[in-house]
Design a protein that fits this description.
By secondary structure, the chain is α+β, with helices and mostly antiparallel strands. The protein is built from four helices and 16 strands. It is 19% helix and 39% strand.
């Protein structure tokens, strides 16, 4: 049996926004991220964890998903993933290369998913010193894509990037690349778009405090506070200035690979 090389974490999302200054203010002053630097038309934001950044923003006029970055454990795994993707005829945007320090450095390549999303697989990206920030995210938790080709998209993540199916419902499939129940989910829709982007909070107190901060800044809780079935994670959802749905979440189910079976 051929063993598919795999990514092992989700690192960051890159978003195109209508108004860069207003979006910067939201993600730093309201959402609770730390603005780290700006370069080449992009502004980068980190969380409490050690990831170089978890969000980058660029002025595009039209809200859009520009890129999702996933981590791989080594250069050997990046090369193996690249060769595996090529062997399957996947659309390669660029072959493995070194990334600029502004983008977090490291070594990796980018591919295009079946519905056009650009995904980058990188290893040895730079890290920051962890910070203690009140009621702030610790990392990027997961991203959910709306999809008109949910089976093809799920197969892409599993067959090309080494994800595993965690659970599925009638409208959704939840897939993982780490012990977290899901780092990606696919939701049935009319076409490709972002369903929501989720940020991990350290605990329930941080989630509740952060949600209170959002409300005090005029952002309603659109759904929550509640607990999901698949993943068992606590959530609260908001709509940020560009219309993207963003989620605070905590307590994601951790998967025991030896015993877990999808439901």
């Amino acid at each position: 049996m051929t063993i598919v090389p795999k990514v092992n974490r989700i690192l960051s999302v890159s978003l195109g926004v209508r108004d860069l200054a207003a979006s910067e203010t939201f993600y730093e002053k309201v959402w609770g991220l730390r603005r780290t630097h700006a370069e080449n038309g992009k502004t980068y934001f980190g969380a409490m964890g050690a990831d170089h950044h978890i969000v980058s923003l660029a002025q595009t006029g039209r809200p859009s998903l520009l890129n999702v970055r996933f981590g791989a454990p080594s250069r050997e795994s990046v090369d193996a993933l690249y060769n595996h993707a090529r062997s399957l005829g996947i659309h390669i945007i660029h072959e493995p290369k070194a990334f600029s320090p502004a983008d977090g450095g490291g070594f990796g390549f980018s591919v295009k998913a079946p519905e056009g999303q650009i995904l980058t697989i990188v290893t040895q990206s730079a890290e920051r010193a962890p910070e203690q920030i009140d009621a702030a995210p610790s990392k990027l938790s997961h991203i959910v894509f709306n999809s008109a080709q949910i089976d093809q998209m799920t197969a892409f993540f599993i067959d090309v990037l080494g994800f595993k199916l965690s659970d599925e419902t009638v409208p959704m499939k939840f897939i993982r690349c780490s012990k977290d129940h899901h780092s990606v989910a696919l939701a049935k829709g009319d076409g490709p778009s972002i369903n929501h982007i989720a940020f991990e909070m350290p605990d329930l107190d941080a989630l509740m405090s952060g949600s209170g901060r959002l409300r005090s800044e005029g952002y309603n809780i659109e759904w929550g506070v509640g607990r999901h079935g698949p993943g068992n994670n606590i959530f609260s959802y908001f709509i940020e200035p560009n219309g993207f749905v963003v989620e605070y979440t905590t307590g994601m189910q951790q998967i025991d690979e030896a015993t877990y079976k999808p439901q």
